[in-house]
Amino acid sequence: MPQTLSQKILAQKAGLDEVLPGQIVTVTPDRLLTHDNTAAISQNFKQLGVESVWDPGRLVIVLDHVVPAADEKTATNHKVIREFVRRQGVVHFYDVGVGICHQVVPEKGHVVPGSLILGSDSHTTTYGALGAFSTGIGRSEAAVIWATGQIWLTVPQTMVIQVTGSFPRGVSAKDLILHIIGDLGADGALYRAVEFRGPAIGQMSISGRMVLCNMSVEMGAKAGIVEADEKTEAWLKGRPAQSYELVTSDPEAPVEQIHSYCVDNLCPQVACPHTVDNVKPVEEVVDTEIHQALIGTCTNGRLEDLQMAAEVLRGRKVAHGLRLLVLAASAQVYRKALAAGILGELTAAGAVILNPGCGPCLGAHQGVLAPGEVCLSTANRNFRGRMGCNEAFVYLASPATVAASAVAGRITDPREML
Amino acid sequence: MERIRGKAWKYGDDVNTDVIFPGKYTYTISDPQEMAQHALEDLDPGFVHKVAPGDVIVAGKNFGCGSSREQAATCLKYAGVGAIIATSFSRIFYRNAINQGLPALAVPEAAEMIQAGQTVTIDLAEGQIMAGESSFSFPPPSAFVMGIMEDGGLIPHVKRELATHKLVRPVDGGLKRGEDETR
Predict the structure, then answer these.
(1) A224, containing H or E segment
(2) Residue B5 CA to chain centroid, in angstroms?
(3) Could you say which of A121, A141, A388 has the minimum Cβ distance to residue B99?
(4) Which residue range forms the structural domain that includes residue B115?
């Protein structure tokens, strides 16, 4: 029976020849990611009455959500996690400063095509960019996997998003995924595996594919996934990754839906408060005054994002009275950006460089907003209260749009500055 | 399980986990009773002061979208919510609700028809929702899901299964299940 990429991965992990959408399978993940919520999960784990985790080599723990600790409570949370790591002999532990989990997990070679990665974070879908099946789970489920090594998953229907054309200058993967989410809605891909296909995806960098897969969850997807190709192989080269076999969708495998997009005439997109699917072309929101701009996060904190921001900001200054915050997604990205002179250019323009981490995105610390303030961000969520204040407004856009808007002090079409 | 009975609290589409349980509390609050004090804080600040045990949340499509934070389900459960009826649920929230022992029922007709403040009675085993003169049926949860809910959530459920050897830990990273495990 012809099968899609997602079906093949789940079948293999369940020890079956084939699986059908809707089928419930019991699987063991290749990697299980947890982050600052590891302390809470360890409490659940303790309640299960099991002494040791099922496989300390398959756990990946990254401290990234509130780093460095913002207060005594978050510091204690980190301390509990470090003690858990030591007690359980967890092999892959990345302490404060290594980076955001969704950059660190692939960067450190934990993701290969065909692998199954689960994580106690909704943006675990990011790893589909490397041809893996990856999805988010809850804390209780993570604790149960630690104890038993297994979890049940429903095999999802596959929705294909076929993308053709070439991106115009100043328009990127972020604009594409915002446009798609605006088009299909916040539940447009609910429970489905979204497989991105087509020549425009083939031309896209792994970073760009990560943006698409990262944000697939914002339209309800269980997973976002891209077949591995020579770009994937090149990206994996030199990383301490496990060996893998290339898994691809059978061309004749039935899929539930196909949506086609062409990026030739795509313009910069902006998601307006307070939902990610409230998307408008930039020209409809230009001149919206902003008080803070944020470039970074697990969506857009990679080298090419910072490079694009520097290109826009080169020789320009951030508008008077506006804060531009920049976070590299990992220490590795930070060092590369430093070596390339990008961080220097950004600070020269007036940006505040924060340490790699989730920072202001979830409103816990580092750039919380005040009532009435507006932030334009490269993050993936703009829900009410997201950045720590329920009377603030968050807009989402690409690194180019955020950088251009930081110069103007209001939402601006980046194509005017490129 | 006993019947669930309470007043309906009605909300719209795409109620996300940030407005159910704000991100700023995710790494500082660990006590479920304290989580309950912030339930729906950024959607309906009056909710926690007026909700009564057994009350039912009735909402539109994609309830619980956004973050995977399980506190979104935990805070509602400990605030006294007996069940959530929605047109549809976001997948991680749906799993989290079941894993917290909080019934999440995707019954579009009931989600549309039930009015705020109406008394709602739910019989899970029978797959029946009663509200005023109307009744709505739904497929009762599977034996597996009922088992989790009757045990009060996934953690106590798996603890019991491990203790009674229904679930056997894998050896050398491989998968082994008990003979009597039928799911």
Answers:
(1) strand A223-225
(2) 15
(3) A141
(4) 4-170
Per-residue DSSP letters for A100-146? -HHHHHHHTT---TT-EEEESSGGGGGGGGGT-EEEE--HHHHHHHH
Please give the tally of structural domains in chain B.
1
CB-nearest to B170 from A149, A364, A385 is A149
Distance, in angstroms, between B175 CA and closest chain A CA? 7
CATH number belonging to domain A269-417:
3.30.499.10
We report the CATH number of the domain holding residue B84 as 3.20.19.10
Task: Let me know if the fold of A5-261 is the same as that of A269-417.
Answer: yes
Strand partners, A354: A327
CA distance B49 to chain A (A): 19
Is B114 a member of any domain? yes
The reply to whether the predicted model has a pTM over 0.90 is: yes
Note the pLDDT tens digit of each residue in A58-105. Answer: 999 999 999 999 999 999 999 999 999 999 999 999 999 999 999 999
Query: What separation in angstroms does the CA of B139 have from each of A264, B103, B127, B152?
Result: 47, 13, 6, 21
CB spacing of A137 vs B153 below 8 angstroms? no
Q: Among candidates A404, A158, A411, A162, which has minimal Cα distance to A263?
A: A162
Q: Which two tokens stand for residue A167?
A: 């991106």
Percent helix, strand and coil across chain B, each to the nearest 5: 30, 20, 50
pLDDT at B172 over 70: no
Best of A115, A116, A148, A194 to disrupt the B interface (most B CBs within 10 Å) is A148
In a domain, B181, yes or no: no
Asked if A149 lies within 8 A of B169 by C-beta distance, the reply is yes
Inter-CA distances, B11 with A58, A236, A411, B37, Å: 41, 46, 32, 19
* CATH of segment(s) A5-261: 3.30.499.10
Q: Tell me if chain B has a CB within 8 Å of the CB of A43.
A: yes
Minimum CA–CA partner of A221 in chain B: B91
| Token digits of residue A51 | 């002494």
- Kindly give the pairing relationship between strand A279-281 and strand A133-136: unpaired
Cβ–Cβ < 8 Å for A387, A262 = no
Q: Is residue B28 part of a domain?
A: yes
- Confidence at residue B167, expressed as pLDDT on a 0 to 100 scale: 72
Q: What is the ipTM of this complex?
A: 0.94
Confirm whether B103 is domain-assigned: yes
Q: How far apart are the first and last CA of chain A?
A: 50
CB atoms B68 and A122 under 8 Å? yes
Span A177-187, pLDDT tens digits: 999 999 999 99
Taking the C-alpha atoms of residue A321 and residue A328, their distance in angstroms, rounded to an integer, is: 23
